[in-house]
Write a structure and sequence with these properties.
The protein folds into 3 domains: 224 residues, FAD/NAD(P)-binding domain (3-Layer(bba) Sandwich); 112 residues, FAD/NAD(P)-binding domain (3-Layer(bba) Sandwich); 114 residues, 2-Layer Sandwich (Enolase-like, domain 1). The longest helix has 25 residues. The strands form 5 sheets. Strands 1-2-3-4-5 form a 5-stranded mixed β-barrel. The chain has 13 helices and 21 strands. The protein has 476 residues and is of the alpha/beta class. β1, α1 and β2 form a beta-alpha-beta unit. Flavin-adenine dinucleotide (FAD) binds next to α1, β2, α2, α3 and β3. One of its GO terms (biological process) is 2-oxoglutarate metabolic process. It is found in: Cytoplasm. GO terms for molecular function: dihydrolipoyl dehydrogenase (NADH) activity; flavin adenine dinucleotide binding. It catalyses: N(6)-[(R)-dihydrolipoyl]-L-lysyl-[protein] + NAD(+) = N(6)-[(R)-lipoyl]-L-lysyl-[protein] + NADH + H(+). Belongs to the class-I pyridine nucleotide-disulfide oxidoreductase family.
């Protein structure tokens, strides 16, 4: 006999667990099924983001940044440290504790909101009178049913053909977050978000890092001016970034590390020998074990579940959200879709504004943006005005000792509506929120320029960049 629910969510990542909580808040009898196992085999909800993504990567970025600060910059403050060293096991242990706090937090939230949690793999069995039947294969087998199902099964790392992940030498994001000792040399394939974040972590701790990128331009999706500045800063920090390469044979030589044959940008045959290799060339939607065929759930050629603008699949009552569908693979995008779908099931007007989803790359300095880039506006023939302000001219940045980068505003030439805001600099991940709010409210750059910002604060750089649109910066 199947246990009947109003809503079943398959997947407990940021998309799934947030959808389940919102559905329960709206009064639905809700189940969430997630198969992720913690180190002792127990449930570890939170998905990629909590277990091998956003949270552990930010924990290691913080640890490695503290280490680099202590070694390179504490002296400027008159703080002397002798015999500085890094205990990698302890750093990884701290990261694991942070992850577990988040896993436990989600289990607590499920209890608080009366979401029934099932630990195991959920798969479609059939569509019947009670709605969809879902089998949960875990420590015990159970059958659930519901008329509304939200699929939030996430994504997996894409491997290079012929070079499978062994997580010892050839590492996905999973292995990249638990290298037991600082490698002497580290190769990274792909200078995207993971490549730059994880490359930065291990470089700061002492690895000699080479990043091989297939495209001829660095961070092609980022505003060109910001990407150029970031490239300059990362290169100065010691990340070796080779653009426009073609990766050939990758050999896993066990204790001897990994060798990568590749063609350089000028067509020259090259070889890179490294202790460890991170492959970060994008992620693929995950429907492994979901058994979509049983109910005729439609996937596209990339394996993503096909959905409309409102996350409806081809089946009535079946929705899909997050990394397993189209759109940016970001935790906050998955969460917004989860909330919107739960509200649509309740007959409300769920809303996700894809034009105001912020992006952040948590390097040092951080890169953050929302809206359109200058190259996109040019390509669309849109008339705009641009304003930039460097952190060098910001008092708080000088006091922090971190003056790299800038804030850039792009506003419509006629109406002054903000079309995009781009930053590379300290705490850009926090500063970008102001721009998101402004764009959500369709503010003009003049609106931001006329708002009082605390002094001294990094946010004054945002105000000054808005003033720069009208060529009237006060501090530069
Ligand atoms: P996931 O988080 O992948 O969760 C899916 C869950 O479903 C998993 O727990 C999985 O085990 C489970 N599952 C799958 N199939 C089944 C099944 N059949 N039955 C039961 N359970 C199943 N995004 C950001 O916004 N900010 C960041 O800083 C950031 N950092 C990242 C760093 C790294 C290294 C990586 C890899 C990703 C990062 N991301 C970041 C991306 C972010 O992790 C994803 O966009 C987000 O996790 C997607 O959420 P989701 O709920 O769609 O899927
Ligand atoms: P990505 O899409 O960000 O970058 C992949 C890079 O690899 C691209 O620059 C691409 O040109 C390059 N590439 C692809 N194939 C290649 C090949 N054969 N040889 C050389 N280069 C190649 O993907 P990444 O870094 O794997 O991250 C996956 C996703 O996870 C991101 O797109 C993002 O959505 C999410 N993420 C988000 C983070 C954040 O929000 N801070 C942090 C980490 C991941």
């Amino acid at each position: 006999m199947a246990k009947n629910f109003d809503v079943i969510v398959i997947g407990g990542g940021p998309g799934g667990y947030i959808a389940a909580i919102r559905a329960a808040q709206l009064g639905f009898n809700t189940a969430c099924v997630d198969e992720w196992k913690g180190p002792k085999g127990g449930p570890a909800p939170g998905g990629t983001c909590t277990n091998v993504g956003c949270i552990p990567s930010k924990a290691l970025l913080q640890s490695s940044e503290n280490f680099e600060e202590a070694g390179k910059h504490f002296g400027d403050h008159g703080i002397q440290i002798g015999g500085l060293s890094i205990d990698v096991a302890r750093m990884l242990g701290r990261k694991d504790t942070v992850v577990k706090q988040n896993n436990d937090g989600i289990l607590y939230l499920f209890k608080k909101n009366k979401v029934s949690f099932f630990h195991g793999r959920g798969s479609f069995v059939k569509a019947g009178a009670e709605g969809y039947e879902i089998k949960v294969a875990g420590a015990a087998e159970e059958t659930l049913s519901a008329r509304q199902v939200i699929v939030a099964t996430g994504s997996n790392a894409r491997a290079l053909p012929g070079a499978p992940f062994d997580e010892a030498n050839i590492l996905s994001n999973d292995g990249a977050l638990r290298i037991p000792q600082v490698p002497r040399t580290l190769g990274v394939i792909g200078s995207g978000v993971i490549g730059l974040e994880m490359g930065s972590v291990w470089r700061r701790l002492g690895a000699d890092v080479t990043i091989l990128e297939g495209l001829p331009t660095f961070l092609g999706a980022v505003d060109e001016q910001i990407a150029k500045e970031a490239h300059k800063l990362f290169t100065k920090q010691g990340l070796k970034i080779e653009l426009g390469v073609k990766v050939g044979e990758v050999k896993n030589n066990g204790a001897q590390g990994v060798s990568i044959a590749y063609t350089g940008a000028k067509g020259e045959a090259l070889n890179l020998q490294v202790d460890k290799l991170i492959v970060s060339i994008g992620r693929v939607p995950n429907t492994i074990g979901l058994n979509p065929e049983a109910v005729g759930l439609k996937l596209d050629e990339r394996g993503a579940i096909v959905v409309d603008d409102e996350c409806r699949t081809n089946l009535p009552g079946v929705w899909a959200i997050g990394d397993v569908v189209r759109g940016p693979m970001l935790a906050h995008k998955a969460e917004e879709e989860g909330v919107a779908v739960a509200e649509r099931i309740a007959g409300q007007h769920g809303h996700v504004n894809f034009n105001t989803i912020p992006w952040v790359i948590y390097t040092s300095p951080e890169i953050a943006w929302v809206g359109q880039t200058e190259q996109q506006l040019k390509a669309a023939g849109r008339k705009y005005r641009a304003g930039t302000f460097p952190f060098m001219a910001n008092g708080r940045a000088r006091a922090l000792g971190d003056t790299s980068g800038m804030v850039k505003f792009l506003a419509d030439e006629a109406t002054d509506e903000i079309l995009g805001v781009h930053m590379v600099g300290p705490m850009a991940s926090e500063l970008i929120s102001e721009a998101v709010v402004a764009m959500e409210f369709k503010a003009s750059s003049e609106d931001i320029a006329r708002i009082c910002h605390a002094h001294p604060s990094l946010s004054e750089a945002t105000k000054e960049a808005a003033l720069a649109v009208d060529k009237r910066t006060l501090n530069f």
